[in-house]
């Protein structure tokens, strides 16, 4: 029981750290300090990665999270920024 509680705390700590990083990035973008690095990406693949990242949060709240893809969806964008927006 303690191990599970500690694992949950570690997971929440990681999620909070990621949120802080995202907020800092958004602040840098807003200030014009961080530049975009556009490249061609598969938006569906990035979306799958985001879904797998947030699925534990959905599961913890008894929510169903699903993603349907119909092949590759190519976009030219900054992959990191796109990932952050989706997440």
**Low-confidence sequence ranges:** none
Helix/strand-derived category reads: mainly alpha
**Mean pLDDT over the residues:** 88
Biggest sheet strand order reads: 1-2
Strand content: 5-15%
Order of helices and strands: HEHEH
Number of strands: 2
Number of helices: 3
Largest sheet: 2 strands, antiparallel
Rg, rounded, reads 16 Å
End-to-end Cα distance: 30 Å
Helix content range: 55-70%
Quaternary structure type = single chain
Overall 3D shape: flat
Question: Short description, anyone?
Answer:
This protein has helices at residues 2-31, 43-60, 79-86; strands spanning 39-42, 74-77.
Care to describe what's here?
- By secondary structure, the protein is mostly helical.
- 64% of the residues lie in helices and 9% in strands.
- The chain has three helices and two strands, in the order H-E-H-E-H.
- The protein has a two-stranded antiparallel ribbon.
- The chain is flat, with a radius of gyration of 16 Å.
- The mean pLDDT is 88.
Secondary-structure blueprint of this entry?
Elements (H helix, E strand, L loop, with lengths): L1 H30 L7 E4 H18 L13 E4 L1 H8 L1
Antiparallel strand pairs: 1-2
Helix pairs in contact: 2-3
